[in-house]
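thoughts on these C-alpha cells:
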Amino acid sequence: MWPSLPLSSMSPMPEFATRFELPALPFERHSLEPDVSRAQVDLLYSHYHRRHIDTLNARGATIHGHSLSSLAEHDGNAIRRSAQEAWNLVFFWHGLSAGSVAVPAVLARRIDQAFGGIGALQYRWRAHVHDVAEGWSWLTVDASGDLELLASPTGERPVGAAPLLAIALAEDAYRIDYRGRCGDYFDALWPHMNWDYAQLNLEATG
C-alpha cells in the first residue's frame, strides 16, 4: 500500500483547481540546525521541490482534477516523474523532525528482526546511502511484513514495497552543507528521523 499523506497537495484537486501549491514544511526551516542549515533546507525546498511543482503547473489542463499520486501514474514521462518526485519530497519532509523522536516499541521490534537493532539499521542505511549516491534511499516494508532498504532513481518510487521513511539524495539535498559527502549528510539527518511517522506508515500497511 502506498501511503496517503494528510496534506492538501496529496488530495484530489477540486474541479475548479488548475494548479498545485508548494506544501508547507512540517517544521521551521531553521529547525534542523546545526545538523542541516536553513540555507540547505531552502535549496531543497524553495528551489528543487518548487521546480517540480512548477513543472506540473506548467501543464495546465493536463493536471486538472488530479492528485500527485494519480499524476505519478500518468503516461507522460515528464509529468509522471515530476509528480512522483514532488510526492517523494513531501514524504521525505514529513519523515524528519525538529527534535529527537524515540523509536516506537512495535517498530523497534520489527527493526530488531530485520536488521538486528537500531544501531545496525543506522550502519546499514548509511552504507546504503553511500552506495546509492543519487535518487532515493528508502526504509520500506514488503508484502510479507519484512523491513528492507531499497533504492529508486529520481522521480521514481521503490518497487514491491511500501515506504516508511526516505532519504533524498538529489545533489541539492546536501551540496551546501556536505558537498558530496552523502555519508556525513546521512549522519546529520539521523537524529531528526521521525520514527512516529514511520510507525504510522507501517500501521497503514495493515
Notes: Residues 138 and 150 are 5 Å apart (CA to CA). The first strand starts at residue 136 and ends at 142. The chain is about 40% helix and 10% strand.
